[in-house]
Amino acid sequence: MKRYRFLVALAALMLILAACSDSGSDGDTTTTAADDGGSDSTTDSGGEGDGGTDSGESLLDTVRERGNIVCGVNETLPGFGIIDADGNFTGFDIDFCRVVAAAVLGDSEAVEYFPLTAEARFPALQSGEIDLMIRNTTWTALRDGQEGATFLHTTFYDGQGMMVPASTGFTTLEELADANICVLSGTTTELNLNAVFNARGIPFNPVVFEDNTQLRPAYEEGNCEAWTSDASQLAAFKASIEEEGGEDQFIMAEIFSKEPLGPVVRDGDSDWAQAVDWAVMSTIQAWEFGIDSSNVDGFESEDPNIQNFLGAGTDAAAGLGLSDDFAVNAISQVGNYKEIYDANIVPIGLSLEGSPNDLWTNGGLQYVPPYR
Amino acid sequence: MTATQERREVARPPFWRDIRVLRVVLQIVAVAAVFFLFRWFYINLVDSFDRLGIALNFDFLTSRTGFAIPYDANFQSDSPVWQMYLVGIKNTFLAGFCGIIIASIVGLIVGVSRLSDNWLVARLATLYVEIFRNIPPLVIIIFFGFALFFFGPFPIFADSWEIAIAGNNLLILNKDRWGIPGVAQTGDLLLFWIILGVGIVVTFVIWRWRTRVFDTTGEPHHRVVWSLLVFLGFFLVAFFAAGAPFEMSWPALSENRRIFVGGFAFNWGFISLTLALGLYTASHIGEIIRGSILAVATGQSEAANALALSSFQRYRFVVLPQALRIALPPTINQYLNLIKNTSLGVAVGYAEVTALTRTSIGNGRPTFQSIIILMAVYLTFSLVVSLILNIVNRRLALVER
Q1: With bands split at pLDDT 50, 70 and 90, how would you rate the model's confidence at A173?
Q2: Do A123 and B77 touch (CB under 8 A)?
Q3: What is the complex's ipTM, to 2 decimals?
Q4: CA-to-CA distance for B236 and B232, rounded, in angstroms?
Q5: Which of B149, B254, B349 sits opposite A208 (nearest CB)?
Q6: B338/B275 Cα distance (integer angstroms)
Q7: How far off is chain B from A53, nearest CA to CA, in Å?
Q8: Which of A175, A263, A279, B186 has minimal Cβ neighbours within 10 Å of its Cβ?
């Protein structure tokens, strides 16, 4: 009798496997595939795998059905993404996750934060564990091409800098010959450190860490003479170290790379990419229009662009897969770009005025397409 | 006659209950199940990669690495990725090898100490085992990395402690690296190695000869003294015949006091990792040794006592040779564990193969292929080690009569 039971179990297993490998649906797409009733003629081309990026089903619909957005973030970077004393995620990148949730779902709190290390972020995106990644990630050709990622509107224009204890008196990279330099592994900073130092013929020794919680004590205890990272991160840690009674820090004037940081989604789902892109850009447009969270309700204007933006004019947002009032939701629940910047980046010691992140009308780089 | 034959045929069960048929069928079903499972995995993978537009090949191995390897000044960031893997494999091997040596020596001492008649020694050994065996190796590694180096007593690089005799540094200690004396090549080593090679063979012959003399005549063999003297003689001849092709190299700080010139340097990641894994594994090996000693029949110890052997002689000549043979198979497992645990070196920034693979994945190399290579590396390491030790074990195993 035992053998019968075993055979039956084995046969059942075989049937399940056969069904899975042939019908072309599994995991979290199963329910949606069933809803479609198999009417989609291209199911054989790519229904297998993760979150429904095949022709019929956009992540945008999946997210709406699920009712929340899984956002890959940093949890150890003050100003951009960190867990505060109350256990909440806060920061510049976190606020943009909330902007997307407010625009797509109408609720800025409908976000599930997924903390990621630098190395784990792209595999998490590729595998469909996260819907969206806003994790101080630099847009590069290699990543855009080989990681199966689509980079959207840059939210923060950054550049690589070098920090040393102020007591050393170092002001140029040349003074760091043969020195130990702390850097996070799997970052563009790591590659760029090599490129810059090799190009100038400065020998150095990288000391590599997985995240800032390990790197910081190594730097503070003198294991490395310098710390290289995005200038914004260095500013954040400079403020944090000095605030906690550590040594005074000095960030060298030289910025030696371009680091455009912004949201990233998977390749091959333009509906979702568009929705996220316009949600993020709405904060910059609102800033340009002078709309912020305090005056967005009942904002009056004769400008048709503003009327479009607030969902009152022609239905400009219809084809984007977003509701008419997506911008209103994003601005009223989170704020415009300047508000987000002032709340998160200004406290770590980087002012908005005169930086590349200022509006194009003020000489900065933040410029978004018009709402017509 | 016919009656019995008929009865036999009637007694034969239907094929779905015939054990001879079922055996074969079940094997086929099992193979098919495994095949289809992996086929499903593979199709799923290829489909996902196609959809994301990620290539599924190993071309990236010849592309430029792009980043420097910590504490490896010889590696250029322009080198291809496969060279990065070689450096990683070398570092993994170094950590594993040194860890195994530490674990074996400390493990043997702890194992014997636990059975000591001396109350203090036995208790200290027990304390050691209980502490190290019950803490995860990763925690021990991080403890060494942070407590010994980050927050430890050592000075920063520029203020390194230099322990010197007659103007030559014997030891340089700082938060980052420890320097010891090494040798530096100054001439052609070929002749030196040829003569030394002959020397090693002759030494081995001498060793066998003294052993045979002892076995046949019972004269004291003194084979260690004999062999050492012969080897030393050959070494000196080789050294001078080749025109002194190398010299002692003493560790010293460079002019800007940021790197070592000369000598041999260990970095903090290597020391933390090797020490932590060595001591952790030693607690397990100690228990294996203790169990193996207890497994040697008490009659053996009693016989040694009856022959008035000293405690040391009893262990050296009677108990340990038997106990170590019993201990070898489970110790192989511990060695393999140690090698696999070197992958935890990523926690202290040690550039072993896992850490480098992860860095290279983070820098845009394909995840799937990189992990496949990583698995192949560890599999090879483990198989080679267990092959070697199994051969040793087969030659040494106790012959049960």
Answers
A1: very high
A2: no
A3: 0.77
A4: 6
A5: B349
A6: 11
A7: 8
A8: B186
